[in-house]
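Saturday, quiet lab. Running sequence design on the structure tokens for the scaffold JK sent over.
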């Protein structure tokens, strides 16, 4: 019985283990979708929001997806309603149509940042048939960029693609509470980390309400995985033993920054 338990435990650790290649974040605080401010009229995921983050020397977290004409644009939501009161999906709009709402191309963001601060690039989920070409497009853009960056996604297939095709890129798995997923069983599975033998992430980025007492996460930390917490909105929400914070709505303590 003890031998069987040990064998199952070894298999479990093998399945959930992170990458053996050590990678670390270049910054302790990353501005969530840029350093945006409704009061100052600075929209999230726009060039002014990224310029504001650069001015304060914060890292930047941003989101990328595809327009109708196949351009890699920077925007978070699937549709334009929350920010623009437009019910159309981003994927149903051409780049020219999206320009009305200040949506920048990823290439334009990279030109603006120009290596001044590190980036976390989140690849949004797309229909399965578009995933590979999406990853290829994003990587083709990023590999021409000389500044520090890493990628993350909720979709393990995207993280797995980067593991196989771009192993030099620091990669992370996004996690949120089980109840936040469209399918509770999918959420439960993703929170087990049992798929990580395919992805071997360098970091795990989990939502603030997600319990990090998860045994799989604890084992990952013991094995050296980096951790990121999002979205942190005050210093009181920062936790011990977390490597970096994706934040908004406050000015992080300058003393936390890494050189």
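Result came back. Writing it out in full:
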């Amino acid at each position: 019985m003890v031998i069987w338990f040990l064998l199952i435990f070894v298999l479990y650790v093998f399945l959930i283990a992170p990458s053996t290649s050590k990678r670390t974040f270049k910054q302790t605080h990353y501005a969530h979708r840029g350093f945006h401010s409704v009061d100052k009229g600075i929209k999230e995921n726009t060039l002014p929001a990224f310029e504001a983050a650069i001015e304060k020397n914060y890292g930047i977290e941003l989101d990328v997806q595809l327009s109708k004409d196949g351009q890699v644009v920077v925007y978070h939501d699937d549709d334009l309603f929350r920010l623009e009161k437009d019910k159309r999906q981003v994927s149903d709009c051409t780049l020219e149509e999206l320009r009305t709402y200040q949506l920048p191309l990823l290439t334009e963001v990279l030109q603006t940042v120009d290596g001044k601060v590190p980036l976390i690039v989140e690849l949004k989920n797309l229909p399965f048939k578009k995933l590979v070409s999406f990853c290829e497009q994003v990587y083709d853009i990023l590999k021409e960029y000389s500044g520090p960056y890493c990628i993350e996604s909720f979709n393990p297939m995207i993280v797995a693609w980067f593991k196989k095709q771009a192993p030099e890129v620091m990669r992370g798995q996004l996690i949120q509470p089980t109840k936040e997923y469209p399918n509770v069983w999918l959420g439960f599975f993703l929170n087990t980390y049992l798929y990580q033998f395919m992805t071997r992430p360098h970091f795990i980025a989990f939502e603030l309400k997600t319990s990090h007492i998860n045994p799989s996460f604890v084992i990952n930390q013991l094995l050296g995985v980096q951790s990121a917490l999002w979205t942190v909105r005050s210093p009181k929400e920062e936790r011990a033993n977390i490597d970096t914070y994706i934040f908004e709505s406050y000015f992080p303590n300058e003393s936390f920054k890494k050189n």
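Notes for JK: Residues 255-259 have pLDDT under 50 and may be disordered. The chain has ten helices and eleven strands. Ask whether to fix the surface positions before the next round.
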